[in-house]
Amino acid sequence: MKKRTPISAIMTSDVITLNHSDSLVTAEKIFKKNNIRHIPIINGSKITGMLSYTDLLRISFADAVYKDEKEIDTTLYDMFTIKQVMTKNVISVNSKTTIKEVAEMLSKKEFHALPIINNKKLVGIVTTTDLINYLIAQF
To answer: Which positions carry the signal peptide feature in this UniProt record (predicted)?
Structure first.
């Protein structure tokens, strides 16, 4: 394992994002369709927050058991906005940050994804799953 490998080596660069004005119904559809658990929230080109599938589970009975279900009960989702549910104080790193540094950050925090920002622009996302897959590939 190389100690100085940059996070850009394992980050997802084709990032799915949502606008802060999108609905939670749209968010859940995107989570399920793409089988992802974290979505950066943007306003224009600026990242304003992160939304996780767990955030949705906290406010609803979002049915993780029935992932194939096409109809979503939107009653509770209509009571909240993405801005109300998302994490607002987002910690980010740049693409030159090492995998080791990112792993240390995520091991000490209560979140499981970090946006990768270069020159104030979202260029990627890295998750704990990316780190685990990287570790597995080393063996």
So the answer is: none
> Using CA of residue 35, residue 36, residue 42, residue 46, what is the dihedral sign?
negative
Q: Which domain holds residue 47?
A: 7-137
Could you tell me the pTM of the whole model?
Answer: 0.85
Digit-coded pLDDT (tens) for 78-136: 889 999 999 999 999 999 999 999 999 999 988 899 999 999 999 999 999 999 999 99
- Residue 38, phi-psi category: left (phi > 0), alpha (psi -120 to 50), beta (remainder): beta
Q: Do 92 and 117 form a contact (C-beta atoms < 8 A)?
A: yes
Q: Does 89 map to a domain? A: yes
CATH number at 84 reads 3.10.580.10
